[in-house]
Automatic annotation (TrEMBL):
One of its GO terms (biological process) is carbohydrate metabolic process. GO terms for molecular function: beta-glucosidase activity. Homodimer. SUPFAM superfamilies: (Trans)glycosidases. Pfam families: Glyco_hydro_1. Coiled coil: none annotated. This is Glycosyl hydrolase. It comes from the Eukaryota. Keywords: Glycoprotein, Glycosidase, Hydrolase, Signal. Residues 1-18 form the signal peptide. Belongs to the glycosyl hydrolase 1 family.
Length: 499
């Protein structure tokens, strides 16, 4: 009898195990790309020049392999293959971004490019025809040059320019696109750009540019959300948010808990609290901390902009879900006197005198900023829930870099370990996370790293004029997760036919 009990118990255990690895019904899987990183065709027909076109042409040495996105994956011509890959993987949705200057060559709606619109219509129609939903990012870092020349995200008029652009794309594509992201990673658009100068437009403005930009991206997002809400929602019934980059920050030891919380408010709160908190406005402690930092640096007053009451109300509540890009984690401690601090978000936290570290058990990747800490994604989402309430979270990016090669077992391990944590968020923490987006569908122009590091489920041959795409082992693994709606995938998952 004992053997029978053992068999029954192990069957029950196996059953539970399998069930624990299942995703809830209705949970959706996608993969993402961004226009400048994949499209190429930088100067076809009447496309306008954007800040990445100019930045890489003027400063080739800022990109590791001296490359650029002039051709990239040539998705402008290979869109049919891109749709085929999304279908092969069984994606529920594909996240793509729109190139502002491809649609509006001057940046303003006085002229709409027929070719640009045709490209996106082909792509969107092709996806819809295969039953794949579209999640569309309106802005993923490629600002039209004429707008940059007037100050870009530091000019307050950008909120109106962005709203006008948003109206054009909602009108053109809103009948088929039900998930929108206004702006990808405003912390990169503002903090990384103006503090480091290593992203377009390559213009440094320490202690100033990032703060002004911070306020303007929020206003731009809010106007675009309100526009949708007022003029398009009843017709199209879609949902709009933005995609924030969330670096999970923990205290290096107990005595740094307050510092860690302030650092999270600085990294996440500055781009979330005004939108997602009940009260709106800047996150607690941040205005004071930045004012103090400015005075210490010799400025006569804080360079951090305040909000009027009207602006607080304009921005507050402008979301239909929380869009989260998450990759990696850091520990924070007080900086030692005189210790060298690098700038956010790729380095330390100088405004708070915070030094960033990584834990010994977080393994390295091929990219200097990326350490693996799967638990970070779960802790990050628990923090969001605690801060902003029980909102719906969509993971809008998550993935890992490797060098070239089809046998990418480290990427498979990455997806497995991070998705396990997503399941724990759902099942143990009661977090309402409904979408998971792999970054990225295929290798592409990885900004400052050029083509040297690869995040793709599909490998792209950049030597081949056709930019042939080949599925990596991780593509089979991801396809199998999607097919089984579970992390419990058959051992022979590479037997699925992808191409
Ligand atoms: C994201 N960090 O950027 C972007 O949305 C993608 O375009 C990009 O290709 C992808 O991640 C991979 O790098 C990041 O602070 C921005 O560590 C900031 C960080 C990481 C990635």
């Amino acid at each position: 009898m004992a053997w029978l009990l053992a068999v029954v118990l192990s069957a029950v255990a196996a059953g539970c195990y399998a069930k624990d690895l299942d995703f809830p019904a209705g949970f959706k899987f996608g993969a993402a790309t961004a226009s400048y990183q994949v499209e190429g065709a930088w100067n076809v027909s009447d496309k306008g020049v954007n800040i990445w076109d100019k930045f890489v042409h003027d400063n080739p040495s800022v990109i590791k392999d001296l490359s650029n996105g002039d051709v990239a994956c040539d998705s402008y011509h290979n869109w049919e293959r891109d749709i085929e890959m999304a279908a092969e993987l069984g994606l529920d949705y594909y996240r793509l971004s729109l190139s502002w200057a491809r649609i509006l060559p001057t940046g303003l709606p006085n002229k709409i490019s027929e070719d640009g619109v045709k490209y996106y219509n082909n792509l969107i129609d092709g996806l819809v025809a295969k039953g794949i939903d579209c999640m569309v990012t309106i802005y993923h870092w490629d600002l039209p040059l004429p707008l940059q020349e007037l100050g870009g995200w530091t000019n307050p008029l950008i909120a109106d320019w962005f709203e006008d652009y948003a109206r054009v794309v909602y009108t053109l594509f809103g009948d088929r696109v039900k998930l929108w992201l206004t702006i990808n990673e405003p912390i990169v658009v503002c903090d990384a750009t103006y503090n480091s100068g290593v992203t377009a437009p390559g213009y440094l403005s320490p202690d100033l540019g990032a703060y002004i930009c911070n306020k303007h991206v929020l206003l731009a997002h809010a106007k675009a959300w309100r526009l949708y809400d007022k003029e398009f929602r009843s017709k199209f019934n879609g949902r709009v948010s933005l995609a924030n980059h969330l670096l999970w920050i923990e205290a290096a030891s107990d005595k740094y808990e307050d510092l860690a919380e302030l650092a999270r408010q600085n990294a996440v709160g500055r781009y979330s609290h005004p939108i997602f908190s009940k009260e709106g406005g800047w996150p607690p402690g941040i205005e004071e901390a930045i004012a103090k930092a400015c005075i210490e640096k010799g400025y006569p007053k804080s360079n951090f902009p305040s909000f009027t009451l009207e602006e607080i109300e304009l921005v507050r509540g402008t979301y239909d879900y929380y869009g989260m890009n998450h990759y990696t984690s850091r520990l924070i401690r007080d900086a030692l006197p005189g210790e060298n601090l690098t700038v956010w978000p790729f380095g330390d936290c100088p405004d708070l005198h915070g030094k960033m570290e990584t834990a010994e058990n977080w393994s390295e990747s091929v990219v200097y900023w990326f350490y693996l800490n799967p638990e970070g994604i779960r802790k990050q989402m628990a923090w969001l829930k605690q801060q902003y309430g029980d909102l719906e979270i969509m993971i809008t990016e998550n993935g890992m870099p490797t060098y070239a090669g089809l046998n990418d077992t480290t990427r498979i391990d990455f997806y497995k370990s991070y998705l396990e944590q997503v399941l724990l968020s759902i099942k143990e923490d009661g977090v309402n996370v409904t979408h998971y987006t792999a970054w990225t569908l295929m290798d592409n122009f990885e900004w400052g790293d050029g083509y040297t590091t690869k995040f793709g489920l599909y490998e792209v041959d950049f030597e081949d004029p056709k930019r042939t795409r080949t599925p990596r082992e991780s593509a089979y693994y991801y396809a199998s997760i999607i097919k089984n709606h579970s992390l419990d995938v058959p051992a022979n998952y590479t037997d699925i036919t992808l191409s």
